[in-house]
Amino acid sequence: MTVMNMIQAINSAHDVMMERDSAVVAMGEDVGYFGGVFRATEHLQKKYGKSRVFDTPISENGIIGAAIGMAAYGLRPVAEIQFADYIYPAFDQLVSEAARMRYRTAGEWSLPLTVRSPYGGGIFGGQTHSQSPESLFAHVAGLKTVIPSNPYDAKGLLIAAIEDPDPVLFFEPKRIYNGPFDGFFDRPVTPWAKHPKAEVPEGHYTVPLGKAAVVREGEAVTIVAYGTMVHVVLATIEANGIEAEVIDLRTILPIDIETIEESVKKTGRCVVVHEATRTGGFGGELSALIQERCFYHLEAPVQRATGFDTPYPHSLEWAYFPGPIRIGTAIKKALED
Amino acid sequence: MTSQIERPNRPALSLHVPEPNARPGDEIDFSHIEIPAAGSVRRPDIGASPAETHELVYSLVRVLDDERRAVGPWDPRLDPDTLLRIYRDMVTVRIFDDRMYRAQRQGKTSFYMKSTGEEAVAVAAAHALERDDMTFPTYRQQGILVARGYPLRDMMCQVYSNRADPLKGRQLPIMYSSRDYGFFSISGNLATQYPQAVGWAMASAIRGDSRIASAYIGDGSTAEGDFHAAVTFAGVYRAPVILNIVNNQWAISSFSGIAGGELTTFAARAVGYGIAGLRVDGNDPLAVYAATRWAADRARSNLGPTLIEMFTYRVEGHSTSDDPSAYRPKNAGAAWPLGDPIDRLRKHLELLGAWDEARETELRETVEAEVRAAQREAEKQGTLVTSSIEFPQDVRTMFEDVFEDMPWHLREQQEQMVAELEAKRK
Question: Which residues does the annotated region (Disordered) include (chain B) (predicted)?
Fold first, then answer.
């Protein structure tokens, strides 16, 4: 075991997989010599050579289009899109091509392709470096969408994504790359070193896709979150002394409905939390699933605490960000209704 | 109602929208097309720098002259057997297209796309590649499958979306896929296959393989962002790929000028990206073969990509859903100044003494019989069902292959659908 932050864990996942499987290649803007703008692929080019770790032109449709061709050939490409906000030029390649290749060829071609991308706010990135587009991809048949919330899961999930036979979108909450941000932006940031999930095995292991984690048990209310929001939720309930059960979804799709269902049937109350804009967000899907499956166990309507339906503002970041106040209010409503 | 815009002392701007020189009712006019004499274009060495090819992008590589002789440095000097195979494959494609077009008109399927006039672009090129090279076609290169000996019956089963459709009825007719025959799945979305082909070629280079990729795109689709991305990547990584632009002059109803075809040649795109480029008479099977072979040898020697404009003409409508008489003069294809690829090769074979009327009649009869037999076999497996819930496929297969393993939500939806159909059958 070694203490790692998220970046180190993600870097280690690449390293482990590139060592084990010569078909694994890493590519993206600034990914090669420099090791990526967040340094997630640092040292890899030196270790594995330029033909396995390389810089690409600034062309997201080109990156994903080429990665699809590589996966069709038999490689396992790990493509980095520098910010999730930049992924839209590749939308057609992901939605119309990668997602459907197995289906449209009746299984003749499958694409073991992983697309990594830093996402989410909290870093003063403005409207082009803060977005959370996960629900756009969860809506697409044939894509898996994964979001880790800590170094241990990040490495295990990324290895599972690389080994997965289908295309996986792996969104990395960039606000917690260096420490588990709890949403109290006016307090000092704690580093990962003090967090138990920063203990990461150096070698190969996986965290299964499609399996949520109950990160805190409780009886009062179920809170479903993922990414940065897991930490904000934990800090919020601690600050308010609420005995909540907190589920870290980890995989957006396929969703682990069993874990959610079991918890909500126990608590009878539920709040879903995400950073992304509210309308049409993944919280709507979660809320619908919960009322379809747990209606007679619910004692209050399912609440949502989310980003607002505006572009992500720069100076008003902490007014936009679903922090402890918004989440606390939603929990209060779920408990009192 | 627009208000008068104030523009003191400045002339009013106007928008230029390109327009073809002939519309329905006009006399067809191809006089603006410059056609260099066959044999007049030089053939650079395989190892030439891309820049040494760049004057060629404004010319036209042609081998068969007006007397149907093979002339000049691009003559691939093919033996009669190879020529006959190319000829036979092109004839097969045309007869196949005619049968399937009729089948669509008879209501046996929803849709069809002919490649009439463009057979050489697929067939002759396929013969110039190695059998294990990967092609990334559009929907008008069915000739590649024919040239590689893919069973006609299986193609038809795909067109019919029937019980034996290898793609389980999931794709529109002619969106074939065959890994074993080096024929990448056709998307239906345009240009997406171009960067994929480059990625496949990059992977082949990463692995130290010797196989190359050959990609196809239409003149219209070169306007897509994926074209730019693909050619950039191909050049940057010196990918072993042939980038064919099939300029058949039409993108449904839009003439090539709407994609920039009046401003320069499509082959000239190669100049801006700094890669090798050729412009080829796509209705000259020998020129298509020679150019493809040149580009393939180059790619296989690690010398990088070649962009080839295959200059041809879409003789028929875009698809069975299109009526070209609504936007261009009737019989435009018959007036195409570069002739018909099948007719041209036939006359060349006759000149060589390898062909005559009797052999032609025999070949036509044989291929017609083969295609008819394949059609009978295919139709034994059914044709497209559009007004019944007695589907050709087991409906449960609808939920297969979304992922390798079926997640719970698809399993639930599968059960729901089965229950729906059971209720309807009662």
Answer: 1-25
CB pair distance less than 8 Å for B232 and A59: yes
A129 given a catalytic annotation: yes
Q: In what order do the strands lie in the sheet with A270-277?
A: A213-216, A244-248, A221-225, A270-277, A303-307
Chain A's closest residue to B239, CA to CA, is A66
Which one of B136, B192, B194 has the shortest CB-CB distance to A96? Answer: B192
Residue in B134, B200, B204, B400 to test binding to A, most A beta-carbons within 10 Å = B200
Whether B385 contacts B391, CB under 8 Å: yes
Subunit contact A103:B226, Cβ cutoff 8 A: no
Query: Which sequence spans correspond to the domains of chain B?
Result: 50-316+327-380, 395-425
Q: Which of B134, B150, B185 to mutate to test the interface with A (most CBs of A within 10 A)?
A: B185
**CB proximity under 8 Å: B 42-71 to A:** none
- Residue B215, classified by CB atoms within 10 Å of its CB into exposed (0-12), middle (13-18) or buried (19+), is buried
For B381, the token pair is 């497996």
Q: How far apart are the CA of B176 and the nearest CA of chain A, in angstroms?
A: 8
Nearest CA to A244 among A256, A259, A233? A233
CA gap B53, A39 in Å, rounded: 41
Of A66, A73, A96, the CB nearest to B195: A66
Q: Across all residues in chain B, what is the average pLDDT?
A: 96
- Residue B2: per-residue pLDDT: 54
Residues ≥6 apart with Cβ < 8 Å to A18? A24, A25, A26, A44, A47, A48, A52, A53
For residue A117, give how far its alpha carbon lies from the nearest alpha carbon of chain B (Å): 20
Q: Is 0.80 surpassed by the pTM of this model?
A: yes
- Cis check: omega of the bond before B50, within 30 degrees of 0: no
pLDDT at B321: 95
Interface confidence (ipTM) of the complex: 0.97
Annotated active-site residue in A60, A134, A172, A275: A60
Residue B4 has a pLDDT of 65
So what's the architecture of B50-316+327-380 in CATH? 3-Layer(aba) Sandwich (3.40)
Give CA–CA dist B155/B174, Å, rounded: 8
Per-position DSSP letters for B293-356, written without gaps between them: HHHHHHHHTT---EEEEEE----S-SSTT--GGGTS-TTTGGG-TT--HHHHHHHHHHHHTS--
Angle between the N-to-C axes of helices A324-336 and A228-240, in degrees from 0 to 180, rounded to the nearest 10 = 60
Of B401, B402, B410, which to mutate for an interface test with A (greatest number of A Cβ within 10 Å)?
B401
Longest dimension (CA), chain B: 79
Residue A144 in tokens:
């898996």
Q: What is the pLDDT of residue B7?
A: 73
B63, two tokens: 């081998």
Look at residue A189 in the predicted model and tell me its pLDDT.
85
Measured CA to CA, the distance from residue A43 to residue A32 in angstroms comes to 9
User: A185: which DSSP letter?
Assistant: T
Q: What angle do CA B170, B174, B176 make, to 5 degrees?
A: 65
Using CA atoms, how far residue B350 sits from B116, B343, B344, B364, in Å, is: 22, 11, 10, 16
Nearest CA in chain A to B188: A96
Q: What is the largest CA-CA distance in chain A?
A: 59
Q: Is the dihedral of CA B105, B108, B110, B112 positive or negative?
A: negative
Structural domains of chain A, with CATH: 2-200 (3.40.50.970), 213-332 (3.40.50.920)
Q: How far apart are CA A74 and CA B203, in angstroms?
A: 8
Q: What is the pLDDT of residue B6?
A: 73
Is the distance from CB of A130 to CB of A272 less than 8 angstroms?
no
Residues A327, A233 contacting (CB under 8 angstroms): yes
